Structure formats: C-alpha cells, structure tokens
Amino acid sequence: MTNGKLEGRVALITGSGKNIGRAVARKLASEGATVIVNGHSNAANVDAVVEEIRDAGGTAIGIMADVGNPEQVARMIDTAKDTCGKVEIVINNVGIRNRENLDEISIETWLATWQSNFHSCYYIARLVAPMMREQGWGRIINMSGTDGFSGAPNRPANVSAKAAMHGFSKALAKELGRSGITCNTIGVGMINTERDWSQYSKADMDYFIEHQVALGHMGEPEDIAEACLFLAGESGRYITGQVIHVNGGLYMA
Question: For the chain, which terminus, N or C, has the lower number of CB atoms within 10 Å?
C-alpha cells in the first residue's frame, strides 16, 4: 500500500474486470479506497481483480451488473450502499466499440451502444448524486475517447455517444459543483489493452502509432489509472467540467 490518498473513500469502477478498468481499480485501492469492481459478462474476471486487490492489502467487492440496464444499475447501487455504506467516486468505464459505418449499423446496435456508452452514465449519476450531495463531496469521471473529440470513420454510434459523455460531464459540473462534487472526462487514446481484433485494423493502428501519436507508442492502462487518481483525489478538487486527454499526442485540443 502507498500513502493512502483515497483512504476511507468508496469508488465504483464500471467495466473493471480487465484492461483499463482493472488498472484503475488496482490503483485506487492501492491508495486506500474501498473499490467496487463491476463487470457484466465475466464473473471470473471480476473475482480475479477483487482477489488481486485483497492480496495486495486493499479492500474490494465485486458486483455483476449490465450498466446499460437501469434496473440492474439500481440493484448495483443498492448493493454498494448496503455493503460499503456509500459511493463517493464513480468512474464510468464501460464502452462498446463496434466497427460499422452508417449504412451497416442496425437500429438495435445503435441503441445498445448508446445504452452502454452513454445512458449508463445517467443511470448511475442519478442514483449516486443524492449520496454525494449529502456527503458534500463526490467525484464523477466519464471515460470518453479521442474519437469522441476528433471523430472517426465507421464508428458513428460510439463516436457520438462518447462525445455526449463530455457534454453530460459539463452539465453535471455546473449542476453539482456547489455540493462539492466534480465531474470530468478522460479522453482515452490508443492504449495497449486486450481487444477484439475483428473490430480493429492492425495496419491502421500501426500507421497511427507511427505517424499520428507524437510520443510514437501506445499508452498503458496504468497511464489512464494515474489520471483517474489525480481527478479522484484532493489533487482534483478545483477541476470540474474538463476533459483530460491521455493520448500521447494523438489528438491535441
């Protein structure tokens, strides 16, 4: 354990069974937060992250829930309150990234992408905001992506939903700020994660890394975790309604 920048805080990280979410959960737990690890389809992954945190001396519980489903979100938050007493930090990390152009994408896929990528942020915020107001302290961090700001071909549902996330962050920042609650966005760039390669072109990724990323390499999940820690702790107390781009210079605002 480190010096406990989040000692006594309770953090919910959605989609934290692997990749970026896992790194964020481990980082926040290492700083003293009680971490709620969430997943949807792979309970073994969630259990593994919980075990990793506990083995390192941290505190964590796992809750399975589809955050695109408002009833399951309500059950998740109720379980979090019953088990941990409160939720003070929320990191909305779940995302669907289908590679389909406007002519290909079905209405069903479009709606499912928005449910997962954007509506989930609303479902969670409306339930945790009252707790945060009562406590006079809270952090909401929405994980968007570079393409939510720069645009990208063949991903209209994901790009538009990710862009909406930052609009939502700004709206909540204005509405909740006087209650001691901050709300920000992290613009995630090209990160070295396990991924479904059917949704990506390796040639395109290699080209972007070589020609578009200023630092010349992909980031690691831990780079995003560090940004989350910065915003979640007292270091982020005077930052709200902002987007922090962590992309190695792929997109420069």
Answer: C
